[in-house]
Design goal:
Elements lengths: L2 H22 L5 E5 L5 H9 L5 E5 L15 E3 L2 H12 L4 E6 L6 H18 E9 L8 E3 L12 E5 L2
Helix pairs in contact: 1-2, 3-4
């Protein structure tokens, strides 16, 4: 598979999963976009969920000018510095949907980051809440429901918090 084919497959999976999640999340709860990047997935989320609060986390914002969240919804800084106060402010189990796409080309670093982030992300998900991620996470209270989405195995990961 070429790098172009791989990118197309990843972007198609993202779009399809964001559309799927928009139809399958609770009508109440926060929506979190972790990793703004150039703003494509944030833009897609706000179009699909126009009445939802979408909080966006980014270490170093550099998105397309049309793809920034409104004042107060962009949280800038390292996730390990910004997620704990966010959880304190908004509460555990406050998120209906978390989309996280923060991987790099270093797979070992990505696995380490996912291991360290898993407890924070798990704490944020409400019962029935959905996490869409570009990598596998270790969240004991969540079930891997990727197979329900028809996205090719290993391309993207989908978790739903049990009770």
């Amino acid at each position: 598979m070429t790098r172009l084919d791989s990118a197309i497959r990843r972007l198609t999976a993202q779009r399809d999963l964001l559309d799927w999640a928009a139809q399958n999340i609770s009508p109440a709860g926060l929506v979190l976009e972790i990793g703004l990047g150039n703003g494509r997935t944030y833009d897609h989320l706000r179009a699909r969920l126009p009445d939802r609060e979408i909080h966006v986390f980014e270490r170093s914002p550099a998105a397309h000018p049309d793809c920034y969240p409104p004042q107060g919804y962009l949280i800038v800084g390292d996730l390990f510095d910004t997620l704990p106060p966010f959880i304190e402010r908004h509460g555990r189990r406050s998120a209906a949907l978390i989309h996280i796409d923060i991987g790099t080309g270093d797979e070992e670093a990505n696995r380490s980051l996912a291991r360290r982030l898993s407890p924070l992300l798990e704490a944020l998900l409400q019962p029935g809440g959905i996490l869409l991620g570009d990598r596998a996470f270790d969240m004991p209270s969540c079930r891997d429901v990727t197979a329900l989405t028809n996205v090719p195995e290993g391309r993207y990961f989908v978790y739903r918090r049990e009770g």
